[in-house]
């Protein structure tokens, strides 16, 4: 039974992604990227879970869905930052592919959650 956003499978998976990215940034990114790429990727990965949490607390399904869509955008933004990190040689191909797999899973789970919310929302009352 889902009582809180922390019970959602999509949140759990995206939280683990956020943790993995945080560790990666702290261990692999050079100091001169601290306020550049490192900051951007940390912000985008944090936005994924933050928007899932915020959407869950909204009273209306449509608002929750909108926050999930923002979260999905943050997933893709995070992937772009990871590709940039790969291009700059901060991470290797294996690290990029591992994180891309996690991002893809997060996207699938988000899409499933959005579809669930769409099916669950009450139909519009007819006038």
TrEMBL record:
Pfam families: 23S_rRNA_IVP
Family matches, as InterPro entries: 23S_rRNA-intervening_sequence (IPR012657), 23S_rRNA_IVS_sf (IPR036583)
PANTHER family noted in UniProt: FOUR HELIX BUNDLE PROTEIN (PTHR38471)
Protein name in the entry: Four helix bundle protein
Species of provenance: Lacihabitans soyangensis
């Amino acid at each position: 039974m889902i009582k809180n956003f922390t019970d959602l499978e999509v949140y759990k998976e995206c939280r683990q992604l956020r943790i993995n990215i945080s560790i990666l940034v702290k261990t692999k990114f050079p100091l001169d990227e601290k306020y550049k790429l490192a900051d951007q990727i940390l912000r985008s990965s944090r936005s994924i879970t933050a928007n899932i949490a915020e959407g869950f607390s909204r009273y209306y399904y449509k608002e929750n869905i909108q926050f999930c869509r923002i979260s999905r955008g943050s997933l893709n933004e995070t992937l772009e930052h990871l590709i940039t990190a790969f291009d700059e040689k901060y991470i290797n191909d294996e690290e990029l592919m591992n994180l891309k797999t996690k991002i893809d899973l997060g996207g699938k789970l988000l899409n499933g959650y959005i579809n669930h919310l769409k099916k669950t929302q009450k139909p519009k009352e007819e006038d």
